[in-house]
Specification:
By secondary structure, the chain is α+β, with helices and mostly antiparallel strands. 56% of the residues lie in helices and 20% in strands. It has a domain of 156 residues. May be involved in recombinational repair of damaged DNA.
């Protein structure tokens, strides 16, 4: 809901603040005072294309600001936060206030501010599509597309249709996903066959070698030992000879330690201080003897290596190297490749079975979709007849007694995301004429009344925060104008309604009456906006009725009209 609209230097309006708020706001004024600038200001505020010709003569820029009441957790609030804008506390739980502004310079530059943060003009358009619907003689924005008309009909149809639509959409998404998978499998069959052949060859090559985790490191160690076998044997033999000589030609380490140990043992009982030294020598003798045994075993093992083993090791390493170059760089990568390739090959080899399974599933889903689509068509056709009757009845009271509103529901051959129905709103403006699309079957003023009739009928099922009507009363008067005013008042029970009007019969039903006043100051006309109440409103109503704001008969007629409107509103409330 728009709480307040501020305008500066737009058209003939120098500076004006429009208090709006809930309910039905009527905007009146003399011809040329700038009433339509109110609609233009709202259009600019919500992202319409700017026209530098609308900037007030002599001004550098036009500026519009709106204080908007929104749900704190709704889509509008979320979008404001996404662009970095701030939401102010509105006092009521669940509500927040956001300030939007738009400036247009004489050079054509345009700037938007959302919640105190600069934003693209497109953001204003996004917010406007969720907040405001404008119905003017030249621009009927709501329900313009067939998809919007189908959505409005679905909302009018109620929960029974909504449940079936939800069921249909879920199944439709599944059907599309499975159909796309089939298409991909068929389209990519050649490439998938090539991939399967490549994987099969790779798996066969790796399986033939049968590598084992860590085998490459073990073979590298073994190859190093076999390559240097004689050097290793000689070094180990020399080391063992030095520790424990078998030839007896010279002293060895074991003999020297044992001799030292025997010398100390003979005298150790004379001094206890020698005890730990004797124990250490005994341990050293044991350790050195053990090393000698290990070296003997090592030399013996080297001497038993089979002839040709090095060639076998190098050949095995060469096989592993081929694999790591292709699928590595490490042997662990080769094994990981095999672990991934085997299930992928199984998947590729089962393409034919998968296509067959998917085809059966797609056929079943399509049959079910067709059945639900038929149900949707029946529900929409029934709702279309009810909507047609209700809107046609409204048109009869809006000075269009011979008009007939038609909701056409046609079925396509193919299925879409909402069924197979094409929904179109048509208008037969006169007896004997053919129903035509709304924007082709009525004049601007008639179209505004048609949209009013539709909005009144849809109000409960498809609510909109704010409606703006420009010259909805064009070409009517008397009792028909009173009916227009009454229906606007009905619409204002569920939405904010702003109406630019020149008829007292319409303005009489307003809960908030604004007048655009012009002041001729030399060659420049300046206008501002005032809120009317009491005698001031009565005088404006008299002016609308008779052209004379202070005529006694006009004032009496105006008072009677206001009383009648109040009674009608109360009686219908």
């Amino acid at each position: 809901m728009i709480e307040e609209l501020s305008i500066r230097d737009l058209g003939v309006i120098g500076e004006a603040v429009l208090p709006l708020g809930p309910g039905f706001t009527a905007v009146t004024g003399e011809t040329g005072a700038g009433k339509t600038m109110v609609v233009s200001a709202l259009g600019l505020l919500f992202g319409e294309r700017a026209d530098t010709g609308s900037i007030r003569k002599g001004a550098g820029q036009a500026w519009i600001e709106g204080r908007i009441l929104v749900g704190r957790d709704g889509v509008v609030a979320d979008r404001v936060r996404e662009v970095g804008g701030d939401l102010d506390d509105a006092g009521d739980i669940g509500d927040a206030e956001v300030i939007l502004s738009r400036s247009v310079s004489a050079e054509g530059r345009s700037r938007a501010v959302v919640g105190g943060r600069s934003a693209p003009i497109s953001v204003l358009s996004e917010l406007g599509s969720a907040l405001v619907v404008v119905h003017g003689q030249s621009d009927q924005l709501r329900l313009k597309s067939q998809s919007a008309q189908r959505g409005a009909l679905d909302s009018f149809a109620g929960p029974a249709l909504a449940e079936r639509v939800t069921e249909y959409r879920s199944l439709y998404e599944s059907w599309q996903a499975h159909s796309s998978e089939i298409d991909a499998l068929v389209t990519e069959r050649s490439s998938r066959l090539r991939e399967a052949e490549q994987l099969r060859a790779a798996i066969d090559e790796i399986s033939a070698v049968a590598p084992v985790e860590g085998e490459d490191a073990e073979l590298a160690d073994l190859a190093g030992r076999l390559t240097n076998l004689e050097d290793l044997r000689l070094a180990a033999a020399e080391a063992r000879e030095g520790i424990s000589s078998e030839t007896g030609d010279g002293p060895d380490t074991v003999g020297l330690i044992d001799a030292a140990l025997r010398s100390l043992e003979r005298v150790a009982h004379h001094d206890t201080a020698l005890a730990p030294i004797v124990e250490a020598l005994a341990n050293a003798s044991f350790i050195v003897s053990d090393i000698s045994t290990q070296l003997a075993s090592y030399v013996s093992g080297l001497e038993t290596d089979e002839v040709g083993e090095l060639d076998r090791v190098q050949e095995r390493r060469a096989q592993l190297t081929v694999l790591t170059r292709k699928y590595g760089p490490e042997l662990s990568d080769v094994l990981a490749f095999t672990a991934e390739a085997e299930p992928r090959l199984l998947e590729l080899d089962s393409d034919s079975d998968r296509i067959e399974q998917l085809s059966a599933l797609v056929d079943d889903e399509y049959a079910e979709l067709t059945r639900i689509a038929d149900d949707l068509s029946a529900l929409r056709s029934d709702a279309g007849e009810r909507l047609s009757t209700a809107v046609t009845d409204e048109l009869g009271a809006l000075a269009m007694p011979n008009a007939r509103f038609v909701v056409e529901v046609q079925q396509r051959d193919d299925l879409g995301s909402t069924g197979r129905d094409l929904v179109q709103f048509l208008l037969r403006a006169h007896e004997g004429s053919e129903p035509r699309p709304l924007n082709k079957g009525a004049s601007g003023g008639e179209l505004s009344r048609v949209m009013l009739a539709i909005e009144v009928v849809l109000a409960a099922a498809d609510p909109v925060p704010t409606f703006v009507f420009d010259e909805v009363d064009a070409g009517v008067g008397g009792a028909s104008a009173i009916e227009i005013g009454r229906r606007l008042a009905v619409l204002a029970r569920s939405s904010q309604v702003i109406v630019v009007t020149h008829l007292a019969q319409v303005a009489a039903f307003a809960t908030n009456h604004l007048r655009v006043e012009k002041d001729q100051d030399g060659p420049v006309t300046a206008s501002n906006v005032v809120q009317l109440a009491g005698d001031d409103r009565l005088a404006e109503m008299a002016r609308l009725l008779s052209g004379l704001p202070d005529s006694e008969s006009g004032l009496a007629h105006a008072a009677e009209l206001l009383s009648t409107a109040e009674s009608l509103a109360a009686a219908r409330g």
